[in-house]
Design brief:
Bound molecules: zinc ion
Strand order of the largest sheet: 12-22-13-21-14-20-19-16-15
Number of strands: 22
Radius of gyration: 25 Å
Strand content: 15-25%
CATH superfamily of the largest domain: Response regulator
Shape: globular
Helix content: 25-40%
Distance between the termini: 64 Å
CATH class of the largest domain: Alpha Beta
Number of domains: 2
Number of helices: 15
Structural class: alpha/beta
CATH architecture of the largest domain: 3-Layer(aba) Sandwich
Length: 501
C-alpha cells in the first residue's frame, strides 16, 4: 500500500511538472497564401510569380514574429507565399503550396495556435473557395482546440465557410495601405493574449451587399474616414478584442464579393456587444453608400490629358485605372500612350508597359539606338492591342531584386518617355522609379498603371487625375460582366433595400 502511495504521488508530481512545462512553452505554426485574384483578367497567376519564403526566412525582420518570441512562444514557420495581384491563381500553384503546408502541419507535433498571413481575395482555378478549402483541411487535422488567428488586407473577401473556421482575425485599417506590419502584429498579439488567458473567441460578421473599388473606399477621406477611426475605440470596449471593416474586392465575380464588418469578442459572453457594434458600423457604411465616390477628378483619357496640360506649375499624376496592376490588371495596355502621342504631350513619363519581347529588342539595340517596336497589348488582348512605335533607347537595367527579374528599359518618343518592363509590376514607390533612373517630379505628366496612388506618391502628388480607361479593373462597377455575385448588390442593383441584422 505504501509503495502504491509513493508511486501515485510520484506520478502526480510528474504529471503536474509535465503540464507546467507544457504551459510555459506554447507552440504556434505560421503559414500564408496571399493573393488578390481578378476573375475578369484572362491570364492566370503562375507559381513562378509567387515569392515563397520558408523556415527562418519567414521570420526575418517581422514584427509579428517578435511578438510571439517575446511571449516565449515557439514559432514553427511553414510556407508563406505572396504574389502581386493578377488573374486567378493556377491550380497547381495553390495545390503545391497547400500540400506543403499540410505536410508540415502533420509533422509539426502538438500545437496551441496557428497564424495565417493572408490577403483574403485569393481565387484558384477549379476551386469555388480555395481559402475555405485550406482552412478546413487545417481544422480537420488540428481539431477545435487549436486557436487560428489571421491578418488580412481590407480588400479581401473571406467567405462564411472560411470565417467559421478561424478564431481571431484583423485587417488593415488604411487604404492606401500604411499599416501592414501593425495589422500582422495585432493578429499575433490577439493570439498570444487568447492563449495566455484561455479565451474562446467569437467573431460576429455582417456582410454588406456593396461592391466598391478601392478608389472609392479610401480610408483617409469621407465617408469612410469617420467610420474607420472608430475601430480602435471599439476594440477597447470590455470583452471585445478587435473590429475590421473589409471594403472587399469588386473585380471578383464571386458570391462572396462584398463589404464586411467583423467584430471579435473574447468569448461568447460578449457576443451581443460584438454584434451590436458590427451592426452599427454596417449601418453607417450602408447609409453612406452613395458617397463612396472617387476623391480626385476623373474622366476620359482625352479629357484628363487636356486637364493635365492646363496645369503648368507642377507634376500631374494620371492613373490608367482600367489597367491597374495593383488590382490584377496586366499593365500592357497602350491606350494612354497612344493618346499622349496623339495629343503631342511633352515632358511625359509613362510608367510602364509590360513587354518582355520589346525589352529584349531594347537590350539588343543598346542605349542611344533608334528602334521600331510593336509595343504591349498582348497579355490584355481584350481591351488592348500592340502599338507600333518608333523610339530611342535611353536606359537599360537588368537588375534582379527579390527573386523577380525586374529588368527595365526606357524609350523616348517625341517627348514621351516609356518604361518597358519584363514582368508585371507596379510603380507604387519612389524606389520603383529610381531603379529605372527616374524621378517622377522631373516630368509634367506621369502616367501610372494604378488606381489610387500608394502612400509615397499620394504624399508628393499635388495633382492626381483618374483616367477612366477600359480594362480588367474598370471602375464603372455596374457595367462589369458579373454573373456569379450575390444579388441584389449595390450599385449593380441601385435601388435595393437592405437592413443589417
Ligand atoms: Zn489592398
Amino acid at each position: 500500500m505504501k509503495r502504491l502511495t509513493i508511486f501515485l504521488t510520484g506520478l502526480l508530481l510528474f504529471l503536474l511538472f509535465a503540464c507546467k512545462t507544457e504551459n510555459k512553452q506554447k507552440r504556434v505554426l505560421t503559414l500564408g497564401i496571399s493573393h488578390e485574384s481578378n476573375t475578369f483578367a484572362t491570364f492566370l497567376t503562375k507559381e513562378s510569380e509567387f515569392l515563397v519564403l520558408r523556415g527562418p526566412e519567414v521570420l526575418k525582420d517581422q514584427k509579428w514574429a517578435g511578438i510571439f518570441k517575446n511571449a516565449g512562444i515557439e514559432i514553427i514557420p511553414t510556407l508563406h507565399a505572396h504574389a502581386q495581384p493578377g488573374g486567378v491563381v493556377e491550380r497547381q500553384a495553390f495545390e503545391h503550396f497547400k500540400n506543403e503546408i499540410i505536410e508540415d502541419l502533420k509533422n509539426a507535433g502538438k500545437l496551441d495556435g496557428i497564424y495565417m498571413d493572408m490577403h483574403g481575395a485569393l481565387h484558384v482555378e477549379g476551386y469555388d473557395d480555395a481559402q475555405a478549402t485550406l482552412i478546413k483541411e487545417i481544422r480537420a487535422i488540428v481539431g477545435e482546440e487549436v486557436l487560428i488567428s489571421g491578418s488580412f488586407d481590407l480588400h479581401g473577401n473571406p467567405s462564411p465557410e472560411f470565417v467559421e473556421n478561424i478564431d481571431l482575425l484583423t485587417a488593415y485599417r488604411t487604404a492606401p495601405h500604411r499599416d501592414g506590419a501593425e495589422t500582422r502584429s495585432r493578429a499575433a498579439q490577439m493570439l498570444v493574449d487568447a492563449l495566455k488567458n484561455g479565451w474562446k473567441p467569437d467573431i460576429e460578421t455582417v456582410v454588406i451587399p456593396i461592391l466598391v473599388p478601392g478608389e472609392k473606399s479610401i480610408t483617409e477621406v469621407e465617408p469612410l474616414h469617420s467610420i474607420y477611426v472608430q475601430i480602435p475605440d471599439i476594440s477597447k470596449i470590455e470583452g471585445l478584442l478587435d473590429a475590421s471593416i473589409f471594403a472587399g474586392y469588386c473585380w471578383a465575380d464571386l458570391p462572396r464579393s462584398a463589404m464586411r464588418v467583423f467584430v471579435v469578442a473574447k468569448d461568447e459572453k460578449f457576443s451581443v456587444q460584438a454584434r451590436k457594434e458590427a451592426v452599427r458600423l454596417a449601418k453607417e457604411i450602408w447609409d453612406s453608400r452613395k458617397k463612396l465616390e472617387l476623391d480626385v477628378p476623373s474622366g476620359s483619357i482625352d479629357d484628363m490629358i487636356v486637364k493635365a496640360g492646363e496645369c503648368t506649375d507642377t507634376t500631374v499624376f494620371i492613373s490608367d485605372s482600367g489597367d491597374n496592376t495593383t488590382a490584377g490588371a496586366p499593365g500592357d495596355n497602350t491606350q494612354v500612350l497612344e493618346a499622349l502621342l496623339k495629343h503631342k504631350s511633352k515632358n511625359v513619363l509613362m510608367a510602364g508597359i509590360v513587354d518582355p519581347e520589346a525589352l529584349k529588342a531594347c537590350i539588343n539595340a543598346g542605349i542611344g539606338k533608334k528602334i521600331t517596336l510593336d509595343l504591349g497589348g498582348r497579355i490584355d488582348n481584350v481591351f488592348g492591342k500592340p502599338l507600333p512605335i518608333d523610339a530611342k533607347v535611353i536606359f537599360i537595367s537588368t537588375d534582379s531584386v527579390m527573386n523577380t527579374d525586374r529588368g527595365v528599359a526606357v524609350i523616348e518618343t517625341e517627348g514621351v518617355k516609356t518604361v518597358i518592363l519584363k514582368t508585371r509590376r507596379s510603380f507604387t514607390e519612389l524606389r520603383d522609379f529610381n531603379e529605372a533612373g527616374l524621378n517622377p517630379l522631373d516630368y509634367r505628366i506621369v502616367v501610372v498603371k494604378l488606381g489610387y496612388l500608394f502612400p509615397e506618391l499620394r504624399d508628393i502628388a499635388k495633382v492626381h487625375l483618374m483616367a477612366l480607361t477600359s480594362g480588367f479593373c474598370n471602375l464603372d462597377i455596374p457595367t462589369l460582366p458579373y454573373k456569379n455575385i450575390h444579388r441584389p448588390s449595390y450599385p449593380v442593383d441601385t435601388d435595393m433595400v437592405w437592413e443589417p441584422e
